[in-house]
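Suppose you are handed only these lines of text.
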Amino acid sequence: MEIQYVIINFIILAIILFLFGRKKIRSIFNSRFERINRELDEAEATEKIAMPVFEEYQHEEYDENSAEETIIARAVFDEKIAQIEEFSGHIHREIHREMIEDARKELFSIMRENVVKLFSYEKYQKEIRDLDTNIIDAILPQIKLTPGDMAYLKHHDVLYVTLMSAYPLDKAIVKKVDEVTTAMLDEVGGKTSLWVLEDPSLIGGLKLRIGDTVYDGTVAEELYQFSQNLNHEPILTTDTVGHLIQEFSEKAESYRPHIHVFQLGRVITVSDGICWMDGLADIMYGEVVEFECGERGMVLDIQQNRIGCVIFGDFAHIESGTPVRRVGRIASVPVGNALLGRVVDALGNPIDAEGYLPYDEVRPIEFKAPSILDRAPVNKPLHTGIKAIDALVPIGKGQRELIIGDRQTGKTAIAVDTIINQKGKDTICIYVAIGQKETLVSEIKEKLKSHGALDYTIIVAEPASSSAALQYIAPFSATAIAEHFMYSGKDVLIIYDDLSKHAVAYRELSLLLHRPSGREAYPGDIFYLHSRLLERAAHLSEDLGGGSITALPIIETLAGDISAYIPTNVISITDGQIFLDSELFNEGQRPAVNVGLSVSRVGGAAQNPVMKKISSSLRTRLAQYRELAEFMQFGSDIDDATKATLASGRLLTEALKQNRYNTVPDYLQAILIFAVSTGYADKIIPENMEDFEKKLYKYFTEEKAELTDKVKTAEKFDNELKNELSEAIGEFAERF
Ligand code: ATP
Ligand code: MG
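From them, the structure of the protein bound to magnesium ion can be written out as follows.
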């Protein structure tokens, strides 16, 4: 009976096909035929190129048949490389990243095509099929139940085991797998459910999946590993690519699959750069995962039955059901000297036009802060070159000093000036731009370059257009880069511009991850986030090399409100703050440091003793002056003493004004403040202050070099030095 039905069905199908599909089938055949012809022509052409090489190999007594195909493949590659070389002049660093990316992709796709072709030849098919028993014998001793599998078994009856291969498998192999896995699960009182699947995209070999863990001995996986190597090759040159290809071709010729073990999961939902996944049972917080399309992400949330992750790149190709695999490491960035002078993104990829970034080392972006015992007290100064800061809120190496103020009050300007002032001081600077305009970043880069400060600076930029995920990890990556230098004994200055935008990015992520929001809709752990970031700034003890990270986080306030959530958080984490006042800024007092609200809790210990002594009364005098000046706005008769206080206060504030990109060494600052605060400048009108300052510096560096040197290196500010200084300044004031 059944046979009859089958025959009738077949006849009906044949008639339908003949009636409706004739033309279509013919056209398909024709196009295939054309393609085969075309490929034959191509093969003939490449054979010509390959022939000389081929002959060479023959002399070396290569197995003729097996060598032939790979040599043709190799010749195609060589040609490809020649094309790329021609296309780009020479393959070297100056080539733009995208071009190299494209070249890599193209190389890889040709590679894949050739490998697929190679394994479609009967000879290789047979060879690799003969290996199946070897592969499964290599896999079976490795299999074990992970903690994730055990957890799964608690809630479910069976654990799924899948055996996959490119072609039908030998029954004996399936039986063996069934026996071994059943025995393994029997031990823990569970059951298995074995599935055997065929998937031609695996090309050859086989793989076994138990729970979320995959033991992969397929050609497809070997190719994937190859493409990863290609990606990690820092510079794509004829040599490196040639070497890799040769390695692979040799492998293909005498193919012995290596078993790759990894864990797999699956995307449940994806939206707004966030995706939820299941599987990946043993994943850790902060771990990197890779989606099938090659994009990567980082795990930010682990729940009992789903895992939340942020996607770093383009999520357009990720959809429900997309396989995800564990990469097996925490998110990390490249570190080292190669980064100096470069602009990189949060993942350490170069985003300037200077091409590939060669590196040998990577560091995890999250790292535990140095312990109490690992730290030394702050005792070395970090000069900003800005008078109002070095005199009033001195910063020491290893300190965390917040720069806080409304928008457009010169916060970034202070940061950039501080970087410029580190020239020749053996301090590495890292500027982290979070959510800034791209034009601003390139402007800063140009400015640093023109002041000769780019050589010792690294810019980590995730501009406003970047995803919240990348903005969120940018300061952590930058700190990892800084830590590398700190732990090798160097001093580092790191500027986070700015953490308000960082907080906003993290709020966005948290809301998308459905975390409950707290004050001002920020997640509850935002304080912890910033404190764990800033705690990584430290001055290490001598035993650990004595390196340091000085952190200058920037926070933007709204209408001067420093009691909002994020500002109070960061104020309480840092060792002081430089408060920039928009009122002062608009009055023309620039930098607009508000003396009353600015403080440095530890930097005083590192201040130059002369400066310390000279500036000790400065704060009160300035505060007094501002109070009086405000009061005087109401206009009334004033006595002479008040008049004098006002005049000298006015001069002092005038002396603290400073233009951008115009940093002053701390000893000259000390001399100026001494001159102004002891009354030597009383006769000059405030408008002449700038001129007075310039000439004073000139006089002291040129005519009083010895005395200037004394101020620079003095251990303490004694009477002798004081008298000497007074005398010199008196002489200068007379002349002015
Ligand atoms: P935003 O909130 O946009 O980040 P910001 O607080 O970082 O602003 P800046 O960009 O540093 O402020 O400076 C704002 C403007 O003030 C710029 O045009 C800058 O040139 C100017 N400015 C900053 N400091 C000084 C200074 N010391 N002297 C003169 N102009 C200054
Ligand atoms: Mg700014």
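What can we learn from it? The chain has four domains: 3-119, 260-331, 375-607, 618-735. Residues 411-412, 497 surround magnesium ion (ligand 2) (CB under 6 Å).
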